[in-house]
Amino acid sequence: MHEVALTTERLVMRPLTPAYLSDMLELSSDPQVTRFLLPMDEAGHLRRLRESEAMWETRGYGRVAIHDRARGRFPGRPALLAAVRQGRGGVVLRADVQGCGFATEAGGAWLRWGLTHLDVPYLTACIAPENQASVSVAQRLGMSALRTDTFHGREVLVFALHRGATDGD
Asked: Mind listing the domains of the chain with CATH numbers?
């Protein structure tokens, strides 16, 4: 079992490595899950998993696999990646656990961790404009719309949480 990166009341998050290839392939085989993501084949997933493993080795943080503590299963993955200009992250969940609050729980944990441990002025989430569920999660986490941008060739809304915005929580 991989070492624990972060825990919440209901979730355990572990570094995402090539050992999760079958989980990622299953996750990406559901059109409900991937409707806002770029398509990726097995080689692409393996490359991304190796990149994630390298991030953990060199930076000490990166993409993680979420494990539901109650069921012990893999419902998806959140990520915290440090871009040159600011931190960036997101959460991808299996369709059968969407709406259970896992995205808010995992995203909130990573926002708190990132703003505590990284020297960045703010953290961002890039969200497809039509992805209203993710927009709602970002807003619940205290993020506000910063700008529109292009990410992997697609228009996105960039939401941000600035350092100090969660002080006093």
From this structure: 6-162 (3.40.630.30)
> How far apart are the C-alpha atoms of 81 and 88, rounded to whole Å?
5
Contacts 24+ apart (CB under 8 A), 136-139: 137/91, 137/103, 137/104, 137/107, 138/107
**Tokens 């441990």 belong to which residue?**
117
Q: Which two tokens stand for residue 86?
A: 């600011």
CA distance 15 to 157: 27
pLDDT digits (tens, 9 = 90+) for 84-111: 334 455 677 666 777 788 888 988 998 8
**SS3 at position 123:** strand
